[in-house]
Amino acid sequence: MTKERAKIFPGKAFLKWAGGKRQLIEALQKALPKDFLQQKDVTYVEPFVGGGAFFFWMMQRFPNIKQAVINDINEDLVKAFRTVKDSPLPLIDALTRYQDRYLPLNEQDRKDFYLSIRASFNQKTADDIENSAMLVFLNRTCFNGLYRVNSKGQFNVPHGRYEHPKICDADTLLADSEILQRTTILHGDFAQTAEYGDSHTFYYLDPPYKPVSKTSSFTAYAKEDFDDDDQRRLFDFCESISERGGKFIMSNSDVKSYNGDTFFDDLYARYHIRRVKATRMINSVASRRGQLTELMITNFDTLTGDLPF
Fold it and tell me: Taking the complete model, does pTM exceed 0.85, yes or no?
């Protein structure tokens, strides 16, 4: 793809992802250490890439980033990123087939077709291209664009009702593939990205959020939970970033404002903690969706970009 075409069809998240950062990009942009990021030898790392909304924005906003590293514990998600990077045209062909079969169907036949693809996806016998095509199809046609698995790791989101979902977005996939050419894609625990950290590295950390109530953790993106011990382990990871002279921004839930829990305020007391407004539309109960605050934690002064210690 030419640079001119990429400007017309800029890269963006090719999956809808619960908790995605598209609606927080403006707040994140204001907090970025821009002088740091405009250096020629910057490495950008996302240990919890999710749908990658912020990643794709960053890679286009700062084309001087020499290397990017993205990681996620969700194996299907990582396969999809690698497929977009290495095999965008076969993926587009597969998605076009799904789109051409699905769209002409009536509502009941669409549901039956969706459930058949979901069952095939959960069998885990397809090659990476077909597996990724099924993931994108399910993501575009499931209820509310969720990704949720049960304790066995099986995708279990019901069928959604969209009149004309865009199952194959070829322009986005091609633009994303170009961006991913300068990206290392890892699968596994966030801690493995530590080897890329030094004084020229910027991390954006978007871990599974700490639940604000016993009922708010409605979904799981992998079989493994991310509990308070993992949150503390992530704090130690942030400490190691700071010790090496790197910089980070981390997003997380504002449990203090919701229920008075000072977990993050205590844990990250020596860092900069800001509360920013975010809109969440992922609750299955419509009346519980809407605007709330989230935490933005940095190891630098967001006004000067300087490390505070």
Answer: yes
